Amino acid sequence: MPDRPPNGARLLAPSQVAELLAVTVDEVVDLVHEGRLRGMRVGSPARWRVEEDSVEAYLEDQAEEARRMALWRQSNAASFPELWGRGRAPTGE
């Protein structure tokens, strides 16, 4: 977790991030601790803030993960005639 945000970085409150991601504030803080979101404690008293760019990157990563999982499921359900012979489905034996 960086001590200072990069110049021009927009910081969001965990509640704002939670609303964007449809998760709880505790889950947002957990994502920061795991390094999946970039965040820091700022102010006095210290309050969590999350870099908006890291939320966008996280959403892109989640979309890519979902795309890959869908392709993987699709490939597992695919029929491979070259393995079973043309016009013949596997018999399960």
Could you describe the 3D structure shown?
The protein is mostly helical. Helix content is about 50%, strand content about 10%. A hairpin with a 4-residue loop joins strand 2 and strand 3. It has four helices and three strands. The chain has a three-stranded antiparallel sheet.
In short:
The protein is 52% helix and 12% strand.
Topology:
Elements lengths: L10 E2 L1 H8 L3 H10 L4 E4 L4 E5 H26 L3 H4 L9
Antiparallel strand pairs: 1-3, 2-3
Helix pairs in contact: 1-2
Short key terms for the protein model shown above:
93 residues; mainly alpha; three-stranded antiparallel beta sheet; 12% strand; elongated
What is the first-to-last residue Cα distance? 55 Å
Q: What is the molecular shape? A: elongated
Give the tally of β-strands.
3
Catalogue the unreliable spans.
none
The secondary-structure element order is EHHEEHH
Content-based structural category: mainly alpha
Individual helix count: 4
Radius of gyration: 22 Å
Biggest beta sheet summary: 3 strands, antiparallel
